[in-house]
Amino acid sequence: MSFMFHRSTRIAVAILAFQLIGISTVSAQSSTLDPPSSQPEVTADSSTTLAVLSVDGAVLKTVETTSVAAQAAGVLNKVHVREGDRVKIGEPLGTIESTSTELQLERSKVALEVAQRNLENTIDIDLAQKNYAVAQNEFDRALESNKVVSDVYPAVEVERLKLVRDRAELEVSRARFAKEIAKLEFLKSQIEHKQLVDMVSKHTIGSPVSGMVVAIEKRTGEWVEPGAVAVRIVEIDRLRIEGFLKAEQADNTLLNRDAQVEIMLAGKKIQSKAKLVFISPEVNPINSQVRVFLDIDNSDGKLRPGLRASVWFPTNESKVTAAKR
Fold first, then answer.
1. Residue 161 φ/ψ, nearest 5 degrees
2. N or C: more exposed end of the chain, with fewer CB within 10 A?
3. DSSP SS3 for 59
4. 250, 292 in Cβ contact below 8 A?
């Protein structure tokens, strides 16, 4: 019995050792295999694998959203647009009641016309100059007469003629001064007229940018105050792609460089190009990535904010196609 027990023990130890050797061999073999690559591949037309710089988490966003506010107080007479309309710079969006301001403008036109005519009028200067010429002539004749025959004109009369001459000279100066005042009055009327023209123009809410109307905040008949938002416009001719690059790849030499863009829209693949316009100087300490902005043309209006995109920078000028992850 003792012999059988020891024999069974030796057999069990041998089997256990054999199993341990087999496990070690399998582990050694598996450790020699290369780990699978998790990087996307890009294949050129020549079937050569190329490295690319991929932008992670790329999403289309609007570059500018403009809140157009009223610049004058009053009742909103009419809204000229609705949601979804595309507008251009300067296009009217709404009209605010402006009857009182328009009457003031008409009054300023009349005042400006009066000021202009006063400025152009030379009657006062001409009359003052003629009176001065007559007074000067009478004074000179009195002096000449007294030189020929003494006391033809008494001294009192000579003084009176001199006073008349001096007064006429002052009248000329006063007429010229009045002309300068008329010039200033004309300039003042011009400024007041321009102010009222500007006030009337502010009763029309114009579009400061080109884009699409996405919200109407004020409706016809509502009272608006200066600064109250009436319409919101989104620029869609140019969109922005926001994404992330690895910190070690985010070199400033990439700025203004074109990137390849691929977007799925309604089951169709749209390919385009975008220009890198911004690389954030801050690095995310958690994932070692930096934020980047790329601008993409959308003049045809096909692209929409919120769409995801595949964006990459090819390493050469060959045509490349991003392999699916």
1. -65, -35
2. N
3. strand
4. yes
Say which CATH class 42-63+236-322 falls into.
Answer: mainly beta
**DSSP labels, 169-219:** HHHHHHHHHHHHHHHHHHHHHHHHHHHHHHHHHTTEEE-SS-EEEEEE-S-
CA distance 195 to 211: 30
Q: Does domain 64-97+203-234 have CATH number 2.60.120.10?
A: no
How crowded is residue 246: how many other Cβ atoms within 10 Å of its Cβ? 15
pLDDT tens over the chain, length 325 residues:
444 444 555 655 455 555 544 444 434 444 333 433 333 444 434 333 445 678 899 999 988 899 999 999 999 999 999 999 999 999 999 999 999 999 999 999 999 999 999 999 999 999 999 999 999 999 999 999 999 888 889 999 999 999 999 999 999 999 999 999 999 999 999 999 999 999 999 999 999 998 999 999 999 999 999 999 999 999 888 999 999 999 998 888 889 999 999 999 888 888 999 999 999 999 999 999 999 999 999 988 888 889 999 999 886 543 333 333 3
Nearest of 56, 51, 53 to residue 37 by alpha carbon: 51
| E strand or H helix that includes residue 53 | strand 53-62
Q: Of 113, 237, 127, which Cα lies nearest the Cα of 172?
A: 127
**Given its phi and psi angles, is residue 173 left (phi above 0), alpha (psi -120 to 50 degrees) or beta?**
alpha
Residues 6+ apart with CB under 8 A from 298: 236, 237, 238, 239
Domain parsing of the chain, residue ranges: 42-63+236-322, 64-97+203-234, 98-199
Nearest 5°: phi and psi at 309?
-140, 150
Q: Half-sphere exposure of residue 117, counting CA atoms within 13 Å on the CB side? A: 5
Report how far residue 94's alpha carbon sits from residue 111's, in angstroms, rounded to the nearest whole number. Answer: 30
